[in-house]
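Tokens for chain A. Residues wanted.
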């Protein structure tokens, strides 16, 4: 079978976690702050990657092989994939990745997709938007517009980044990976290994740090990022926080600020795979930003969200993130910008946690990145 499948697609450890059956498809979990119950709302998803809520509580979920699905509030999966998607390159870690809805979706119906697509002789992270329609023929994206293409492309199948986040001003952030070529992350004329900041229609803001530079790409907001797969907007400051995959160790939590250089691969807490040898010049260098928090050994962090709901009041203001390694949900307590405590939940119980979202109901929703991927719901457990 060909490596590449193109389709215009239609289709620090805290208290140990205890898992006990409560009823069919509902499991009771002990945690430090709240008793929890985990429900399997939907399953049979093919490597689900991104989750976004519509205003009515329904969910859009991407499947990495190239399908966008619609799931009801109660977990009913629409058997029809959403139509109108762009050509998607399903290769290695690539495929259909994140999904986001416009902050004014109720009025304009814009849905944003990040994915790996064809670029020159290779593939690259791309972003489109389309208007969600739901006619008799089934749901689809109309008026499809491409608003971002990472250039140049690469034949590599890894490190696409591809998380999407809107800030309170309506700017769209797109996370990028270095595409497996670490030196690209330090080149200001190369979009790989960067955080991108755009207007909602793809124009670059005039106050981007390199907007007027002849030697750098105007849409770049930060550089020196290895592979950012978690992105969340701070509910008070409006700043972007992001989780980044290190190599062997050195996974990072960063606050992304304009013009900052986050160091990869010049500085890192990680080591070369297998050999364990040093990468770059050490862990610190003048002019390069230190992470807010780092994990060694790696946990392979993915989806990221600030909890602001009412269902778990003791979690309010905490960060929740998925981890592919150890298959767990991580909760971080903050004192300002400093991480002061970490709790690990669900370890090795449901699969690789790819995305974490908070629903309009204040409950927590997780996607497991598996052949038989699941949509999980965390709710308070009855006493």
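Reply:
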């Amino acid at each position: 079978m060909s490596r590449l499948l193109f389709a215009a697609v239609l289709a620090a450890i805290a208290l140990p976690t205890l898992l006990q059956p409560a009823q069919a498809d509902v499991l009771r979990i002990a945690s430090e702050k709240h008793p929890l119950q985990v429900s399997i709302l939907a399953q049979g998803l093919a490597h689900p990657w991104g989750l976004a809520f519509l205003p009515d509580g329904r969910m859009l979920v991407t499947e990495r092989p190239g399908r966008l699905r619609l799931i009801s509030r109660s977990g009913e999966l629409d058997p029809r994939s959403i139509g109108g998607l762009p050509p998607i390159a399903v290769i290695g870690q690539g495929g259909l990745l994140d999904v986001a809805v416009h902050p004014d979706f109720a009025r304009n119906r814009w849905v944003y997709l990040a994915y790996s697509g064809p670029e020159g002789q290779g593939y690259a992270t791309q972003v489109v938007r389309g208007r969600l329609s739901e006619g008799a023929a089934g749901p689809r994206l109309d008026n499809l517009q491409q608003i971002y293409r990472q250039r140049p492309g690469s034949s590599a199948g890894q490190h696409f980044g591809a998380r999407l986040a809107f800030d309170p001003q309506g700017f769209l952030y797109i996370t990028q990976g270095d595409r497996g070529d670490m030196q690209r992350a330090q080149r200001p004329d190369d979009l790989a290994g960067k955080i991108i900041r755009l207007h909602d229609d793809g124009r670059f803001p005039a106050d981007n740090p390199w907007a007027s530079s002849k030697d750098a790409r105007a849409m770049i907001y930060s550089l020196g990022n290895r592979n950012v797969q978690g992105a969340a907007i701070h509910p008070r400051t409006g700043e972007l926080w992001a989780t980044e995959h290190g190599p062997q160790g050195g996974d990072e939590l960063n606050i992304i600020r304009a013009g900052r250089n986050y160091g990869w691969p010049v500085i890192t807490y990680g080591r070369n795979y297998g050999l364990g040898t040093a990468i770059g010049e050490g862990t610190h260098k003048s002019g390069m930003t230190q992470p807010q928090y780092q994990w060694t050994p790696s946990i392979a962090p993915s989806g990221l969200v600030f909890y602001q709901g009412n269902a778990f009041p003791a979690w309010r203001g905490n960060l929740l993130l998925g981890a592919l390694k150890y298959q767990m949900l991580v909760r971080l307590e903050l004192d300002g910008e400093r991480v002061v405590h970490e709790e690990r939940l669900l370890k090795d119980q449901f699969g690789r946690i790819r995305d974490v979202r908070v629903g309009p109901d204040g409950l927590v929703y997780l996607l497991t990145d598996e052949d038989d991927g699941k949509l999980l719901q965390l709710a308070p457990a009855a006493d």
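DSSP finds one helix and 27 strands in the chain. The two ends are 53 Å apart (CA to CA).
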